[in-house]
Amino acid sequence: MDLLSSAYGATSDDDDADAGGTDATPTPSWAVTSFSPAAAAPPPLKRPRWEPLPYLPPPPHPVPQPAPPFRAGPPPASIASGRYVSKRERALLAASRSPAESPSPHPPSGAGEVGSAAHLLASAGMDHTVHVFNVWSKGNTTARVFKFHTSAVKDMRWSLNGFSLLSGGLDCSLRLVDVEKGKEIKVFKEDQAVEVVKFNPSNSNLFLSGGSKGSLRLWDIRSGLVTKEYQRSLGTILDIEFSSDGKQFICSTDTSRSNISENSIIIWDTLRQVPLSNQVYTEAYTCPCVRYHPFEASFVAQSNGNYIAMFSARSPFRLNKYMRYEGHGVWGFPIKCNFSFSGKELASGSSDGCIYFYDYKSSRLLSKIEAFKEPCTDVAYHPVMPNNSKSALQHQRHPAGNPGVEYRIWIVY
């Protein structure tokens, strides 16, 4: 009987924790000297009910970074051996541990999976050719020269795997070539001069083309046929940009002939082939470039009014009237702009030959680089070293004569 009284009179570990963490053992009921009803010991404490742990939201997914070298650290703090550990204590201990406390010698998933063409730079020229350069070569930088087009090449894009190039030009054709073998894979015929091409980020077999007659077509590489066509009596397509999931895309058109400025920027639904909005930008300027922000629900448009405008990427796609990126010049040139991979900076070419870097949040001018004497029409961040290698710059010479293309790599610390 004494053993039963002792067992039921003592509290458990969970009772100690709920009572403030004291280690004092309560006096058992059999130790009471008086057996009168008034001095009888209270009934034994009941074990507290189980309570679910509070919901802890998962930590945000960071941008994949190369893992640091593995270093053996001190073992994680644990409860002293020989002591009973309740389920609640084990759950709280597991929740309090951070993933950083258990380093792994293996890099995170996605690290080091950059395409093999990260050191290559491609250019489309007015001399009917597409050049591929090795930017790290100290000698002959020309790796490939493709001469499959019969007229000027207006735009080109790397495939998502980095092994092929898609180009379109004034010969009303789109040509897909294998960079490694130097062979033409497939030819897509158009009824208009091709001005711009863009791969669908969610499906590497689909790409979008826009031309001089205002037609937008979605092509399938496997069949070589048009799967969808987007018609709205538009002017020349100046630029197109897919959303990150590929469900929507923005097109910028030349509205100088129709005098209808509300069609200068149109947001399309990719599957339904219907415009979600065509009254996004109502100012009397064309926009040679549109770019989605890599993370936030917004996009920017380079305006011939010598500024970059910001818009919401959600319906009703309103213009932010209080945010403009000013200081550079456009003046009718096809000046492009691009976001950094972190989305914190916005870089733009300029008609004065300089590169301008803006802070995305405040639109403040961060720095300016004097790159060329003629207009700098395009700027892009390096895919492998986004923090210190700012751009692969396209410089298009516009004066009469033999136009050429010059590329330069700039390092900014």
Tell me about the largest β-sheet: 4 strands, antiparallel
Any idea how many domains?
A: 3
Give the low-pLDDT segments: 12-24, 29-39, 70-77, 98-115, 388-403
CATH class of the largest domain: Mainly Beta
Structural class: mainly beta
Determine the CATH topology of the largest domain. Answer: Methylamine Dehydrogenase, Chain H
| Molecular shape | globular
Distance between the termini: 80 Å
Fraction of residues in H or I helices: under 10%
The CATH superfamily of the largest domain appears as YVTN repeat-like/Quinoprotein amine dehydrogenase
Question: How much is the average pLDDT?
Answer: 76
- Biggest sheet: strands side by side, in what order? 4-5-6-7
> Gyration radius, to the nearest Å?
32 Å
Number of alpha- plus pi-helical segments: 3
Strand content: 35-45%
CATH architecture call of the largest domain: 7 Propeller
Using DSSP, what is the number of strands?
A: 25
Q: What is the helix/strand order?
A: HHHEEEEEEEEEEEEEEEEEEEEEEEEE
Would you summarize the structure shown here?
Residues 1-11, 92-101 have a biased composition (Low complexity). This protein is mostly beta strands and 413 residues long. Helix content is 6%, strand content 35%.
